Amino acid sequence: MEINADFTKRVLVHSADEPWVASPMAGVDRRMLDRIGAEVARATTIVRYAPGSHFSAHTHTGGEEFIVLEGVFQDEHGDYPAGSYVRNPPTSSHTPGSQAGCTIFVKLWQFDPADRTQFCKTMTVDPGPAQGGSASLELHRDAREKVSYHHIAADTAFEITDPGGIEVLVLDGRLREGGDQLEAGAWLRLPQGQPLQAFTGNSGARVWMKTGHLPFAKPPSA
C-alpha cells in the first residue's frame, strides 16, 4: 500500500475530513496520512482507540513516536494524557490501549535504527510578549531530524527553513499556508528545499513539527 508516498511533492491532508478505517484490532480505527507498506509500514496515521480497546503486545522493530491528541493513552509504562509526546525506539515493546478512549497521531518505522532513547515529554510553552508572540520547545534532535512544538500567538508570521523537508501537524488554532487554511488536525508535508511560510489566524495556533527527516524516508526494512 502506498499513500502520499512521493516525498518530492507538497502534501496537505485535512484529517478531520478523512474516513476512519478499521484496524485489525476491534475498536481501533485509523486515518492514514502517509504510508509505504501493509500492516508493517513506514506510516503516519491518526489512530482512535474506543473506550476499553487495546492492541496486542508487540515490539517496535522500526520505532514509534506519537502525540496524544485527546483522552489518555495507556500501556504498562504509564498513562499519557493529551499533550504527551512519546518516543518508543527500535526494539522497545508495549501493550497499548485506552480504558476511557483516546486519539493519537503516530509515526512508525521512521527512527535511526541505532536509536535506543525512550521518553515522554509534555508539550507546553508560553508564547507571551517576552517571546515575541511565538515560543518553541525542542522535543528531540539527532543527526537525522529535529522534532519541536510551537505555540504561536494570533496574527503572527510563522516561517521555518530546513533543506531536509518540513512536516507540520496543527494541534489547534489556524494557519494560512500556500493559499490554504490549516485548522486543527491538518497535516502538511513540504518537500526538501521548500520553506514553510505561514501566518496564524485570530486565535493563534499550536503545532507539532518535524524537520530534516525526508532524506531518510524509505520503506520498512525486512
Automatic annotation (TrEMBL):
Domain of life: Bacteria
Domain ChrR-like cupin: 9-111
Gene3D superfamilies from the UniProt entry: Jelly Rolls (2.60.120.10)
Name of this protein: Cupin domain-containing protein
Lineage of the organism: Bacteria, Pseudomonadati, Pseudomonadota, Alphaproteobacteria, Rhodobacterales
